[in-house]
Amino acid sequence: MKYIDHNSVVKRMNSRLIVNRILKTLFFLATLFALLTIAVLFYRIITQGVGYLTPEFFQNFGSRFPAKAGVKAALVGSIWLMCVVAPVSLILGVGTAIYLEEYAKKNKLNDFIRMNISNLSGVPSVVFGLLGLTIFVRALSLGNSILAAGFTMSLLILPVIIVAAQEAIRAVPKEVREASYGMGATKWQTITKVVLPSAIPGILTGAILALSRAIGETAPLIVIGVPVIIQFLPENLLSQFTALPMQIYDWAKRPQLEFQNVAAAGILVLMMFLIIMNSIAVFIRNKFQKRY
Amino acid sequence: MAQKDVTGQPSVQELIAKSNSKKQKKVIEKLIPFILLLIASVSVLTTIGIVFTLIVETVIFFTKVPVLEFLFGTEWFPFANTEQQFGILPLVVGTLKVTVIAAIVAVPFGIASAIFLSEYASENLRRVIKPILEVLAGIPTIVYGFFALTFVTPLLQQFIPDLKIFNALSPGIVVGIMILPMIASLSEDAMTSVPNSIREGALAMGSTKLEVALKVVLPAALSGIVASVVLALSRAIGETMIVSLAGGSTPKFDWDVTDSIQTMTAYIVQVSSGDAGYGTTIYYSIYSVGFTLFLFTLLMNYLAHVISKKYREEY
């Protein structure tokens, strides 16, 4: 007696297998779509911008003439901005993470702080700009200075840094802490001398990635009122300044076609900035990350 | 008293006694948690600051423009000399156009990539593709905006001759590309967390890989996937630079995607980069638009949270 007809099984299976293969190809092509886009994007920007990437481009200020336009003020401004954002966001972010991971008891207040951080990371950057405009630019009358922009950016990337620092601190095993307590160390000594040193690579990696987001953010700067055409370098934290993405935005908006190439060159500078920062992050992660 | 040992160094007991007697240290131990709590409260203050700022300025705005006109008005002409019009619907429609187009691009491509990465791709291939997707997610939005304006729009114009330089289609597609990695990566996480035993059960029953993916893994990971989509769309709603550069600045209350539009975010940018004097109705209007935007994204983030919490399948 024959229960299973071999031929009909093959016939039935075949069509299902073919459908499987077709869809697998489709899924693969969909994945390829993203990779292809990134390739086209880089190719376009490099071919457009590389011709304008001369030494003068780094030495000139913004200009009405494409050939004379440069990124000097924007590049220096972005570096100044980072000098504010990096320490402020690191202190706030790591402090919050230490509190949440080491001190916070499970109660309503701390649950609220945690929930609030995850909500904050979903707020659009342009809304942070409105916050900066009201609080830092007007209420604290810092004007559209580096300090006001730096504070706004710090708050924008704060949730990212907190989460990265929390993960890094959580990855330090309990045994290490207990060994430290066992040697008679106090809680704060344990945190500063045992937990933080082994969590620092993780924290820095996360922080650098967050900072590279801050470098590329444009919307909050526009809302704060950061000017574009600036013919001088900032002197102190209360100076006016401009930043790379602002400069790119201004060039990209201009109707003359040549300015598109200048914008592409500006994007290349911004991308190099980002690549350098990301390489540092990867380097730190590979070199110093301890595995327990 | 503990004795000194032969080397003349103080003994361990002495060291402990010495360190315990330091008053300064005890004060520090007491003070530190308090200082850290203050630092942690900055994030809460930020939220309070955002909500407070938006509400206060929006209330002032509503003393100049009636609430109903703002909510249901279909004309947005803040720069008109004679009769200013503040009906937010054109801006909302502009935002929706971009978001819907972004969803049409990002949802199928994102979920298909997630299925490929989690169900079909070899470990090696995945190790190559995932970092590239992360690069895509790390590109500043201003770069995407430039790409939309100088590449995607001219490209589309070859197929759609009527397409204006500023339109909804091109920024919509590019916003879709921008949120694609987010959907792909979060959905892949949701799908990888479906246990292998379930997959193997289905395979043992004679399913093909496709059937496993579509009928077993996808339903099991559905809550995570839907949450990732909602989260990504909330990002699309708040996206600013792409729509500012490639979308134009003509708020319109229609569903034409080939013509210039304006989104809520682009309006805020337009006013901020011009010289809207402090205290004018236009100045306050950016806060009312910002508040609307904030409520939209808050609602969607909350929705994503509820979906992923409530409908999660536990294994």
Keywords:
heterodimer, A: 292 residues, mainly alpha, MetI-like fold, 2 domains, 0% strand, flat, B: 315 residues, 13 helices, 2 strands, membrane (chain B), Phosphate transport system permease protein (chain B), cell membrane (chain B), Phosphate_PstC (chain B), transmembrane (chain B)
- 3D shape of chain B: flat
- Tell me the name of the CATH homologous superfamily of the largest domain in chain A: MetI-like
Q: What is the beta-strand fraction of chain B?
A: under 5%
Series of secondary-structure elements of chain B, N-terminal to C-terminal: HHHEEHHHHHHHHHH
Q: Write down the overall mean pLDDT of chain B.
A: 88
Give the tally of β-strands of chain B. Answer: 2
What's the domain count of chain B?
Answer: 1
Helix share of residues of chain B?
Answer: over 70%
CATH class call of chain B = Mainly Alpha
What is the average per-residue confidence, as pLDDT of chain A, rounded to a whole number? 88
The CATH topology name of chain B reads MetI-like fold
Task: Provide the gyration radius of chain B in Å.
Answer: 27 Å
Assign the CATH architecture of the largest domain in chain A. Orthogonal Bundle
* Structural class based on helices, strands and sheet pairing of chain B: mainly alpha
- What is the tally of helical segments of chain A? 11
CATH classification, class level of the largest domain in chain A: Mainly Alpha
CATH architecture of chain B: Orthogonal Bundle
Structural description of this entry:
The complex is a heterodimer of chains A (292) and B (315). Chain A has eleven helices and no strands. With 292 residues, chain A is mainly alpha-helical. Chain A folds into two domains: 47 residues; 232 residues, MetI-like fold. In chain A, helix 6 crosses helix 8. Chain B is mainly alpha-helical. The longest helix of chain B is centred in the first third of the chain and has 42 residues. Chain B has one domain: MetI-like fold (Orthogonal Bundle), CATH 1.10.3720. In chain B, strand 1 and strand 2 form a beta hairpin. Chains A and B meet through helix 1, helix 3, helix 4, helix 5 and helix 6 of A and helix 2, helix 4, helix 5, helix 6 and helix 7 of B. Chain B: Part of the binding-protein-dependent transport system for phosphate; probably responsible for the translocation of the substrate across the membrane. Chain B: Its main location: membrane. Chain B: It is a multi-pass membrane protein. Chain B: Keywords: Cell membrane, Membrane, Phosphate transport, Transmembrane, Transmembrane helix, Transport.
